[in-house]
Specification:
Elements (H helix, E strand, L loop, with lengths): L1 E9 L5 E5 L6 E4 L2 H21 L10 E4 L1
Parallel strand pairs: 1-4
Antiparallel strand pairs: 1-2, 2-3
Length: 68
Amino acid sequence: MHQFHIEFDREADGRFIAEAAELPGVMAYGATKEEALAVCEALALRVIADRLENGEVAAHSLEISVTA
């Protein structure tokens, strides 16, 4: 199972940033923590889909769990 932990930080201007540390480059801003999480999760799924398309991850071994 692949687990992705999403970490949050708050910028000086009040925006939230969510980052999936296990997936380099997967980070997103949002006006709320929930908005940042939703965008980050969508981006993480896109990255995983790309990896599946390129054969970098075996589909039969893929089970995803996201913790925030």
